[in-house]
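Protein Entry — a single chain follows
Next Lines — sequence and tokenised fold
***
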Amino acid sequence: MNAVHWLRTKQEESEFIYWLSIVSYDKDDHSFNNHAYFVYLLLFFSVWLFVMLTFLAQSGAVILKIINANDPVSAATFLEILILGLWNLFALRQSLKHCPISFSEQDAEWLCQMPVNRSIVVMRWFILPWLKSAMLIWLLTITIGFSVAEITLAGSLGTNSMVSYIGYGFRAWINVIPVQLTLFSAQWFFGVLRLQKDVERRWLKLPVMIIALLILFLFLHYATEQSLNLNFNALALVQASFRRNNLPLSMLVNWSLAVSLIGILYWVSGSFSLARAAQETKGIGTLEKMSQFGLTSYTDELKVRHRLGVSHSPSRIPKLKGDGALIWKELIQISRNLDFASIFNWITASIFPIAMIFIPDLGSRVFSIAFWSIQLGRLSVKRLRNDLACWQLTKQLPVLHKKLIILDLSPGCLAAFSLSTVGFMIIAFITKSTNMGFLLLIPGMIAGVVGMAAFDVIRRSKSNYLLNGFAPEISAVGYLMGMLTAVIPVVLQSILSGVLNLIFPFLISLILGCLSFIIAIRAYKNIDKL
């Protein structure tokens, strides 16, 4: 088993080196300057992370007040259960769909064919995925703890209150560690239980998901009723993250559950089928490596091919003629690329109206617009880049280039507008207040970001590369131009007053959106000339 430990250690080191390379740190350099640089990185990212979490905590405090203005602890408990439940519900579905343990091709050829202790292999491969899954949950939990502190410690933060402020986040983090570990162990338990040496339990997926959904709804129900002083002891295991009392007892129970479930996982892993696991996870490690090195378009294409498989029924011959064939093509592409991940990406790319309600100052709004425009621009040009990568076919279509670009970009614009409007209406209904000025800006801002992203891809496209199947990604210039088309109307609305506050930014946003599409269409004409 020393060889197994050595092999996994090398894989973990490779993963660690990849993240260190992003900040240009060389772990093999033992000079004083390199050690000093490492200390600087720790201090810098610690301060940066604290500032970011306190910044997000201000918006989190608004959310807690919306959930339960009278009791922020109960609101934080409800939000924590909702995040943990939805996150682990999706992860549990993935574990029941394919093996949670990802083996590389080398592991499949050598390790999975050897008579090794299955339990040791599973537990050794458990550590790194757990840490990667836990990091985001930890940060979200600390943010919720800071949000409770924002409400409880209202006013300016001095030295004494700063210690209490950090204590809220630390208490939330230290209590959620065993909770998240328990839930992650449960995901692996069912994933390992499904793939045994003698039998593959495919029937586990439906009953386990139904029971998990019922448990989540039960906890959310009692978390809501907790504000009415009803008692449900299991909630204390999560509520201790945000309340001063019962933290030692809750941590004792949580760690007992975590250790017990890890022990059960170790016991079940004794008859785990490594060969079946390697077969199910074939190619996943390669896709992860490609994603790390920025080959996202090719990775997405391989995922679609893997999901469709050779047994996918052929598409029906389109009955529409002329321009209608393009509409048919768009419908086929949307249906084949529609999955939970794509839906989640579009939802996260459309939360801008909600962020605008929760963020009061102009600087913070500009900061959020930058992230929103990058996400929206990246998602909206996927269809266009796919068509450009098939340039030898796209160029021969008897369709005006104007219609082709509009049809490629309109699904993304419509999806972003629909989801953004729905989110805006839901928050307006909850908060009992509306801001029609921001609602009017949404269409023009979306068109500006999408149009500029398309223009940047088209202007950097060259026929000789397109004929080889390579369509360029959006550059930093494209993201910057898209961000400017979204920021300008918001800034104008913030500095103007009266009627101009409503009409002028709206007109500017529409003008910028139309100009973005116009220059993208004109750039498409010049592809053959470059």
In short: The CA atoms of residues 346 and 416 lie 7 Å apart.
